[in-house]
Amino acid sequence: MSLAPALRDATFRWIADDPDQDARAELQGVLARAIAGDQAAVDELTDRMAGPLTFGTAGLRGPVRAGANGMNEAVVVRTTAGLADWLQRNGHGGGVVVVGRDARHGSELFHRAAAGVLAAAGFDVRVLDGPLPTPVTAFLVRELNAVAGVQITASHNPPADNGYKLYIEHGAQIVPPTDRQIEAAIAQVPAAVSVPRSQTWTTVSADEVAAYVRRAASLPTGGVRTLRVAATPMHGVGAATLAEVLAAAEFTDVHFVAQQQDPDPDFPTVSFPNPEEPGATDLLLALAAEVDADLAIALDPDADRCALGVRERDGSWRMLRGDETGVLLGEHVLSTMDATGALVATTIVSSSLLSKIAAAHGARYDETLTGFKWLVRAGDGAGTGLVYAYEEALGHCVDPDYVRDKDGISAAVLACDLAAGLKAEGRTPLDVLDDLAVAHGLHLTDQVSLRVTELSRIGELMAKLRTDPPTSLAGGSVSAEDLRPRADVLALRGEGVRVLIRPSGTEPKLKAYLEIVEPVPDRDGLAAARQRAVARLATLRGEVSALFE
Question: Which residues of 113-124 are buried (b: 16+ CB within 10 A; e: fewer)?
Fold first, then answer.
């Protein structure tokens, strides 16, 4: 296939309009090879110019590269100019906007570009000095009564990616129709090279950042602090802030994975810098065993997610699933307050156990679509009365009045509070999970993911499953429910079994979320119930994996 004239002309225009000399040269090189007849270059150019990036589950994300369908200075400039226009048209002109970043490739350049565009547009821009966790930006949007916040981050995506996370007033991520309105505004922005910029911004003070540390450190409700912690920021930006928060909360026996402690955008020790990925926490669990830790904590690279590792009763270490951590923290939050009428929430793909925990405490419960942009609006659409929310993908919102998003650092300090109290009683988080199983039934969850290279494959599989869904799973009958147009999700439900299938909002994956619920007659019957549940879950996993073939 030869280079189409329209693609060639669009690329020439993009190059002429790009303010970044290196990006222009990069795209010129691809274009030259495509013009010369290199089919691989034609395919690459088609992909690079297939943009623009759109707001997904957690903002814009894409590979750091030149072109409309990548993260680069031109895209950030035009995105920010569109945001500025939307804010001005909605009565927020001149307001405070917080701009932060992580330590990924391109983050510093994109951070300055976003701040410069907003400053030139007349906003009171407050920039975070250096790479800091995403939850700090989310906190400061509320703390400084900002009209918006921008965090340059791709969270747990592969090393080649970066992204643009957007908060609006009150510190929540954007939802429809705001996302589409901002995208429409971006489409009207002139060439990036002609967008005005200014360096008239203000650096956020050390005390303002310290306000986040003080707040997170105030969360523990117990009085016990004897706890040894192994931790990793997974080459991201969370180590210093986590250490500071834990020290302020008087958890001082903390050991970091040395190879992963400092920010490194190449993430050299992990294939994917996501605690959910197989092998990603191997160094952490090895350290936990070496130092005889009581709890292991893994943050993702921008520290908005938190995974916990625990010692099994045979002495080995394993990471808890997101649902296990979610219900542990949910139970802990509700048990340390008068929960009558309080609201807790999780997503439609997370375990159903939180609903039963909420009922036991007299709390309200809600399920939302995936993503914290929906979770923090649970209940009445504004999250009124929300005290805790989690999603199975390691996201936990434990202090919604101050951080209206997932926050790995606050979750970590609350997990330390829980673990320290249990240690003083001679118990562990596994004992609490057993208590919850006896009280509410054993809930086991798992996930099947299919990573694709051709995104069209995801749509093809979803269409096939909707047309011909299975009628039995894990030894029982199931019925299918298509959740469109509310969400691109297919639900399969039966007695004690549930499967939800959806495309990932952040990665090229098709995901299936599995749950088996097995009644537990009493504590003596727990072991037998677990054997039955594990066997059913293994069967279910195999059956769902076959659906993805």
Answer: bbbbbbbbbebb
pLDDT of the chain, 549 residues: tens digit per residue: 689 999 999 999 999 999 999 999 999 999 999 999 999 999 999 999 998 999 887 789 999 999 999 999 999 999 999 999 999 999 999 999 999 999 999 999 999 999 999 999 999 999 999 999 999 999 999 999 999 999 999 999 999 999 999 999 889 999 999 999 999 999 999 999 999 999 999 999 999 999 999 999 999 999 999 999 999 999 999 999 999 999 999 999 999 999 999 999 999 999 899 999 999 999 999 999 999 999 999 999 999 999 999 999 999 999 999 999 999 999 999 999 999 999 999 999 999 999 999 999 999 999 999 999 999 999 999 999 999 999 999 999 999 999 999 999 999 999 999 999 999 999 999 999 999 999 999 999 999 999 998 889 999 999 999 999 999 999 999 999 999 998 999 999 999 999 999 998 767 899 999 999 999 999 999 999 999 999 999 999 999 999 998
Q: Which of 2, 107, 155, 504 is catalytic?
A: 155
Rounded distance, CA 512 to CA 545, Å?
A: 9
Residue 478 forms beta bridges with which residues? 494
CB 188 within 8 A of CB 82: yes
190: Cβ contacts below 8 Å, ≥ 6 apart: none
| DSSP state string for 335-397 | HTS--TT-EEEEETTS-THHHHHHHHHT-EEEEE-SSHHHHTTTTTTT-TTEEEEEETTTEEE
Contacts of 307 (CB under 8 A, 6+ apart): 275, 276, 281, 297, 298, 299, 319, 320, 322, 325, 394
Residue type (1 letter), 427 = R
Query: Contact 136/100 with Cβ under 8 angstroms?
Result: yes
Cα dihedral 332, 338, 341, 343 sign: negative
Q: Which of 374, 373, 399, 395 is nearest to 386 (CA)?
A: 399
pTM: 0.95
Q: Which of 314, 356, 366 has its CA nearest to residue 520?
A: 356
DSSP sequence for 93-105: TT-EEEEEE-SST
In the chain, the largest separation of any two C-alpha atoms, in whole Å, equals: 74
- State yes or no: is 155 an active-site residue: yes
Contact by Cβ (8 Å): 360, 439: yes
Give the tokens for residue 122.
């007349």
β-strand pairing of 228-232 with 202-203: unpaired
Q: Rounded to a whole number, what is the distance in angstroms from the first to the last CA of the chain? A: 30
Q: Is 512 left (phi over 0), alpha (psi -120 to 50) or beta?
A: beta
